[in-house]
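During the no-cost extension, the postdoctoral fellow (Dr. R.K.) reprocessed legacy sequence entries with the updated structure-token encoder. One reprocessed record is reproduced below for audit purposes.
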Amino acid sequence: MKQKIILLMIFFGITATTVNGQVEHTNGHASHTMKAKTSKKSLSPHTMTMAMIDGAHVHIDYSAPGVRDRVIFGGLVGFDRVWQAGAHNATWLQTDKDLVFSGKVLPAGKYGFFLIPGKQEWTVIFNFRWDQHGKDEYNETEDVLRLTVKPVDLKEVQEVLTYEVNKTGDKSGEIVFSWEKKKLDLPFTVK
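Re-encoded structure tokens follow.
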């Protein structure tokens, strides 16, 4: 039933946000974020964000940990190591149309989304194995696409890990990752 409602919302261009079981929705917005209802308060709640861009439904599903007075990059998340880009299960991205990042095509499909934070540059990874706990089953030979990006330093701490999918033009969008004092912008076009 829940899937049917979501499909109807997508078809009619309705967006929604749920927090603690309450739903807010409006017509005509390009993107939204939803938090799954949980019976017990989680320190890293299951969250999703999505947008429709040139007919492409781009969806990211992740668990959103907080900083909670910890050193994240270079501490909890080590430099130069594969990280599942969220808490618990690997973060995943799904698109029903090909997306082009920096001239490289990500075919329509569902992918694990991993990051390798570095001191100067980060590696963004889209991997065939989207359904796994953390990075337990990550295998570099299953990578579909890798990108090298430079993070931007944030002036203030972003307490909770956040992803956004934003429409930036008729056929273009961006994925934005923000956490602790780092932000990544991943611009793309719909093929």
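The mean pLDDT is 85. Residues 43-190 form one domain. The remaining legacy entries will be reprocessed before the final report is submitted.
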